[in-house]
Amino acid sequence: MTHHLEICAFGVQSAVIAERAGATRVELCDNPIEGGTTPSYGAIKITREKIGIQLYPIIRPRSLNYYYDTEEWAIILADVLMCKELGCDGISVGVQKINGEIDADKMKRLVEVAYPMGVTCNRVFDAIPNAPAVALETLIQAGCERVLTSGLAASAPEGAALLKDLVTLADGRISIMPGAGVRSDNIEALVQQTGAFEFHTSARQAIINPVKFSNPRVTDMGNMYVADEEEVKKIIQLLRRNG
Question: How many domains does the chain have?
């Protein structure tokens, strides 16, 4: 079975690196410190123009949780249509109920609105209170094509046992894509332990600010992250060696 790597790209620079290094797909995000939020129209447009591999922007209007009010739900639907307009291949999205469970009706609606784009369920799956098998069936019935998950753990290596169970339960009906903490030093073990064929990583590194002057009294500048091209290449080489 051929193995694939998706890169979580926090900007067009990382998306270009992902394609050059041999990745299959880019999940385009903004705000890495917030866990990833919806990128801007301009970011999606320019990234779509710059790369030919699959592009799946994350649709997440804010951080904190995946439970959205009426206005936020309207924003989500509008952003899905924006991605379709810009020629994206799919979206990465997730919605939960107030009790933390996957919102089956809204996920099904998102699949309908996104069509013919594909839909990845993002890590809302890892925010469920219990019953991952039930949540998995919910997403299969909704029509999602894959689930990005760490196996309800802090990282995919820690959740490897559940990831293996999910792959077995999925039985080819949906792809289980391990993500969080995926690196070149653990990818081979994850392949063997989980049986998954798609994996997700940002392989990110902070870049040094090239601007000559920074006001030391201004502390809200933040960091910029780009994908480590050599790390991405190494992961892909190891995936190919194992599949």
Answer: 1
φ, ψ dihedrals at 118, nearest 5°: -85, 165
pLDDT in tens, the chain (243 residues): 799 999 999 999 999 999 999 999 999 999 998 999 999 999 999 999 999 999 999 999 999 999 999 999 999 999 999 999 999 999 999 999 999 999 999 999 999 999 999 999 999 999 999 999 999 999 999 999 999 999 999 999 999 999 999 999 999 999 999 999 999 999 999 999 999 999 999 999 999 999 999 898 988 888 899 999 999 999 999 999 987
* Cross-strand partners of 76: none
CA distance 45 to 88: 9
Q: Which domain holds residue 216?
A: 4-241
Report d(CA 174, CA 241) in Å as an integer: 24
Listed in sequence order, the DSSP H helices in 33-181 are: 41-50, 70-85, 104-114, 132-142, 160-170
Q: How would you class 221 by CB atoms within 10 Å of its CB: exposed for 0-12, middle for 13-18, buried for 19 or more?
A: exposed
CATH of the domain at 186: 3.20.20.380
